[in-house]
Design a protein that fits this description.
By secondary structure, the chain is α/β, with parallel strands linked by helices. It folds into four domains: about 5-50, N-terminal domain of TfIIb; about 60-130 and about 330-515, Rossmann fold (3-Layer(aba) Sandwich); about 130-320, Dimethylsulfoxide Reductase, domain 2, CATH 3.40.228; about 555-675, Barwin-like endoglucanases. About 30% of the residues lie in helices and about 15% in strands. Helix 6 links the parallel strand 9 (about 190) and strand 10 (about 205).
Length: about 700
């Protein structure tokens, strides 16, 4: 590899693919990287074309949000912030970070907020995707972190995808599964989902489940395995606790009961039970379909219960949570949610809190978690939080109950720190230009705990700065020079890695020069000893609950687009990636559409108790009385999907219920849709009334 070629981790999904960019600006997969072994999906190929499109060049400021922004210097920006912070109490400010930041950025921000501003008012957009998986892993195993790696794909014979459309959301990983299937006799891929996704279409078995009922389905599998005597009772006895309580809950859902609740056949439950009972090695994958739910932690635990009950850890299998963002794992390692501290520590643990106080040479880290981001929105509206600092994320698009979010952002003094203009900037008072991928150096951690060094290969755009540098300079402005002496990212890495020494996520001996490298062994709990008080893994009763209070004939699901990343801040600037993704659409069962007199390509209005949105109908094999609408479209494309959503949350993880809201559907006339449809592959119905598609 020549000196001109720079390697980095893909900034999109959590697979953590290694990429490199050559001297001509062309991006390819890194064949030496263990996460992707040279493979690559479509999204990162167009990165070079959008490095400078729609970028924020200089700090911008306006005291009144009705005024236009004016350009200011960095020193003026820090002075404005310092005055604001001096006039507010620690709990009147709030920081909202992102799983797309580098680990060094996250560490410095968390150190400043929890260690020196003396508030735990800090959360990240992992609250919207991975908080539930984190909670379930900690409840079951005593710590966060996936207990297996991608290597476990290469010797497994059964793969269960539940609440995951990995074929589009984690495409390189899914291709690795398909490659394994091609090489393995009698290999089996099972997908459980309300929508016949691309993952489902490439699976051997597709089980179409009613949204929100996964807990019941998985409990029923546990019930059936126990009834058939096919559990690993020796494993349960030697390595686990709490089995009887979990089984008692599962016994409420024999297949004949689960069938009615889940909308599946009893045979579907038997197929999954057979897979857990008879496979040589079974790996289950899940993502937001289980996580983003008011019952999300229970769904996660119900799946983990099956692995524990059948002894499917290590050489016999793994429950593998797929990380949503490129560095959500790094954020989790650094403790960037409301309760976290570096090294998988928790503010509620006195010993761990005291360690970090000594490590940072500070005192007074608060011992209670701060409010989550959805709780912070309420506190803003109550005038209890008066300054919100948003970093590398776009909450106007991604948070639920958008109208409420907008009201809060209008009210609060809003700081937006980002590389690109986005919908949240429209509500900002102060805008700070941040350097993006390739303009700064640091590390990220992918889904299987592999840490990759992202090298710098271009100058920061305009006056933009690395996020760690912005936080460092502001900390110095507040008088914390000794605690924030950093001149470069390498100094930060040398400090943060020491905070992990002796912890499960120990990277204390890592160096930039020896990356990529995975922390932990291939199997995190290789000797089946777990960081719980008893040293055993823990079953939990997986209690079923589904939100049903709204009125509406349909259940609306939301999720990702195939060729776009989250809120299109970067990928939406690429015409190649936008092709086929606009106008905003909703997937609908053709039989449901026929009952309402709706044709493919026609516009409909989706209406919930929280708001409405207009979408173009596409037909798909989706469970009857279900709809699916991608969430990531910015306002330039019309109504926001998350306008329709409730902000209720899972009681354990506080993750929003983004995958379940009741809506009604109102057909619109084709003439009213003509302007929207003029730039899409879908057209209105032809004169004879039959649906037609343009070439």
């Amino acid at each position: 590899m020549s000196e001109e070629i720079k390697s980095f981790q893909c900034p999109y999904c959590g697979v953590g693919c290694g990429l490199f960019i050559n001297e001509k600006g062309k991006i390819k997969g890194d064949f030496e990287h263990p996460a992707n072994r040279g493979d690559i999906c479509k999204k990162p190929l167009y990165l070079p074309k959008v490095f400078e499109t729609g970028r924020i060049e200089k700090p911008l400021y306006r005291e009144n949000k009705k005024d236009n922004f004016k350009k200011i210097s960095w020193e003026e920006a820090y002075e404005i912030l310092a005055k604001k912070f001096s006039s507010l109490s620690p709990d009147e400010v709030y920081f909202y970070l992102s799983g797309q930041l580098l680990t060094e950025d996250i560490y410095v921000a968390n150190k400043l907020v929890k260690g020196f501003l003396k508030t735990n008012n800090i959360d990240a957009n992992s609250r919207l995707c991975m908080a539930t998986a984190v909670t379930a892993y900690k409840m079951a195993f005593g710590s966060d972190g996936p207990p297996c790696t991608y290597e476990d794909i290469d010797d497994a014979d059964t793969f269960l995808f539940i609440g995951s459309n990995a074929a589009i959301a984690h495409p390189v990983l899914f291709k690795r599964v398909l490659n394994r299937k091609r090489k393995t006799e009698n290999a089996l891929i099972i997908t459980v989902d309300p929508v016949e996704t691309e993952t489902a279409k490439k699976s051997d078995v597709y089980i179409q489940i009613r949204a929100g009922t996964d807990t019941v389905f998985l409990n029923s599998v546990l019930y059936l395995l126990h009834k058939r005597g096919e559990l690993d009772y020796e494993f349960i006895e030697k390595y686990t606790e709490g089995f009887e309580e979990a089984l008692k809950e599962a016994e409420k859902y024999p297949p004949e009961v689960a069938k009615e609740i889940c909308g599946v056949d009893e045979e579907d439950i038997q197929i999954v039970a057979d897979a857990f009972a008879k496979s040589k090695k079974l790996v289950s994958f899940w993502c937001q379909g289980l996580n983003q739910s008011v019952n999300g932690t229970m769904k996660n635990l119900a799946l983990i219960n099956l692995h524990l009950a059948t002894g499917r850890l290590n050489e016999r299998g793994c429950p593998f949570s797929l990380t949503g963002q490129p560095n959500a794992m790094g954020g989790r390692e650094m403790g960037y949610l409301t309760n976290g501290l570096p090294g998988y520590r928790d503010v509620r643990n006195e010993e761990e809190r005291k360690f970090m106080e000594e490590f940072w040479n500070t005192q007074g880290i608060k011992d209670t978690p701060g409010p989550t981001i959805t709780e912070a929105i309420d506190l803003i509206l109550q005038d209890r939080i008066k300054l919100l600092w948003v970093v590398c994320t776009n909450p106007v698009i991604s948070l639920p109950k958008v109208n409420k979010v907008k009201e809060a952002l209008e009210k609060v003094f809003l700081v937006v720190q980002d590389a690109y203009f986005n919908d949240t900037v429209k509500y900002a008072n102060l805008v700070l230009p941040a350097a993006q991928l390739g303009e700064k150096e640091g590390v990220m951690t992918g889904s299987d705990r592999t840490i990759t060094l992202c090298k710098k290969f271009r100058k920061p755009y305009g006056e933009s700065k690395p996020d760690w540098q912005i936080f460092t300079e502001f900390a110095r402005k507040l008088g914390f020079e000794k605690a924030f002496p950093y001149k470069n990212n390498r100094e930060i890495f040398e400090e943060l890695k020491k905070a992990t020494k002796g912890r499960l996520c120990d990277i204390s001996d890592f160096t930039y020069e020896k990356l990529p490298k995975r922390w932990g062994k291939r199997w995190l709990y290789e000797e089946l000893k777990f960081p719980t008080p008893s040293g055993r893994a823990r079953f939990h009763p997986a209690v079923f609950e589904v939100a049903n209070e709204e009125e509406g004939e349909f259940i609306l699901l939301t999720g990702r687009l195939k060729n776009q990343w989250h809120t299109m801040t970067r990928t939406g600037k690429s015409p190649e990636l936008l092709k086929g993704e606009i106008p905003p659409f909703v997937l609908m069962n053709p039989e449901d559409a026929q009952e309402l007199g709706i044709e493919e390509g026609q516009e409909v209005e989706l209406i919930s108790k929280y708001g409405s949105a207009v979408r173009v109908v596409r037909f798909e094999n989706i469970a009857k009385k279900h709809l699916f609408a991608p969430f990531g479209y910015p306002e330039e494309f019309g109504d926001l999907t998350n306008t329709l959503l409730s902000d209720r949350v899972d009681p354990y993880s506080k993750e929003p219920d983004l995958k379940y809201v009741k809506v009604s559907v109102r057909p619109l006339t084709c003439s009213s849709a003509s302007e929207r449809l003029s730039h899409t592959s879908l057209s209105c119905s032809s004169p004879d009334g039959e649906s037609s598609r343009e070439a």
